[in-house]
Amino acid sequence: MNIGNLVKIAISSLFRNKMRTALTMLGIVIGIASVIAMVSIGQASTQSVKSELSSMGSNMIMIMPARQRRGGVDMGMSSSKTLDNRDLESLSKNTKYVAAVSPNVTTNKQLIYGNNNHSCSISGVSAAYLDIRKYELKEGVMFTDEDVKRYNKVCVIGQTVVNELFTNGENPIGKSIRFGSIPMTVIGVLASKGQSGMGDDQDDIVFAPYTTIQKRFLGITYFNMMYASATSEEESELAATEITYILRSNHGIKDGADDDFDIRTQEELVSTISSVTSLMTTLLAAIASISLVVGGIGIMNIMYVTVTERTKEIGLRMAIGAHNRDIKLQFLCESVILSLIGGVIGIVFGLIISYVASKILNMPYVVSQMAILASFVVCALTGIFFGWYPAKKAANMDPISALRYE
Questions:
Q1: Coil, helix or strand for 351?
Q2: 154 neighbors 208 (Cβ within 8 angstroms)
Q3: Dihedral of CA 138/144/149/150: which sign?
Q4: By C-alpha distance, which of 120, 116, 158 is closest to 139?
Q5: How does DSSP assign 374-387, residue by residue?
Q6: Helix, strand, or coil (residue 220)
Q7: Quick check: pTM over 0.85?
Q8: Which of 129, 126, 125, 106 minimizes the C-alpha distance to 179?
Q9: What is the distance between the alpha carbons of residues 321 and 323, in angstroms, rounded to a whole number?
């Protein structure tokens, strides 16, 4: 019996019981759709995070105080005062692979303009911070090094702050807003960056000279952290090594002793987050694939029922010359076609689910060609694996007994 006839007979048999065929395929459809959707959403989330980190500066380096322990108690990073002006000056003057460096001191304040108020995070930074973090000015100017030296009460605000405080459409430039009880003059407005990959509003921010925040708001001389940018993405690791050497020297850390600071490059962050998201994608896809096993068991069950229902047909085919191999191939072909049709429908539904999820979650729409190809292979193998034993049972029937079967 040739393959064409086998396929025609298989399709005819399957469409003879449309409802049963549809319900049998449902497990395969759900399994394949789930796997496609999980892989697509996982890859989209990874791509979204990578894009978000790149928008922060692909060559950015973060320098943070190390976690402090006192008497065996973890005091966290907030208690550390290891980063200061001496470190800033050393990194600004004595490095080859560091293009720019900016301190960062942060506080939260209630911003007030007229009858409007808004609670917001205020970051004290240097003029280089915008370039390091890839922020752009929409209008106005950034404060200068002179503003930093004089502790001037000037600031640059994000678009969310503009929307919350200047509700009548006023131009914020030149206006005075109060940070608690301290007035600050707005000299610039940042271009909108929208939400980050973590859901944070990147426009709900105020930048001011770091000396102003240190002296007028917090009364400190140290930095919460520092940001730097390497001369290029390829030289990020060299810059990190250079920073480590300078800070260890400044802090008098002896050979073999632990650093009192932590350094993180964007490459490390991307690698770490990609590993986590890839693991989660694999785990979710593995859980979703369990329904494929359930669908395969459903196919085996229905094929057993089909063999029993068509016992006389099997006996008649054998009586007129059909070989055991022909009978086996016939039922195996039905099983594979059943699985493949379910797989195709599942792939379509999986792609639709992925597209809808990408729009709802505001992520890129990613189609994994490897996942689609793997789905076809898995469907074929599922049909063969779970259809083999029922097909073998049909092929091993005794023709005389099959013809007498009631």
A1: helix
A2: yes
A3: negative
A4: 158
A5: HHHHHHHHHHHHHH
A6: coil
A7: no
A8: 106
A9: 6
